[in-house]
Predict the structure.
Amino acid sequence: MEKRYSEYTQEELRSEIAELTEKAQKAEQLGMVNEFAVHERKIIMARSYMLNPSDFKAGETYEVDGDPGHTFYIEYMNGVFAWGYRQDNQGEKVSREEEALPISMLGNKLDG
């Protein structure tokens, strides 16, 4: 039975990320788009478990890595997931639907 990332040590997470990065690079070189995407998502999740969720606060806005046109407003935290809304550069909600982002996808906190 496989361990969950929440059960990994920091060193095990680093090793897993290195292994997944290698697999992602190989998949990309071979043009295996779906496999590449799966490895990328796993890397994002593993990185989230290397961060401290208490560093991310409800009511704050953060940059979204890989999405320069949007920010993310956190409504609440649940483990390594920030729940809230993507916003455009003017601070308007992009969607009415709440979404969850792994905290490793959040960049710098923005002053509000």
In short: Residues 87 and 94 are 5 Å apart (CA to CA).
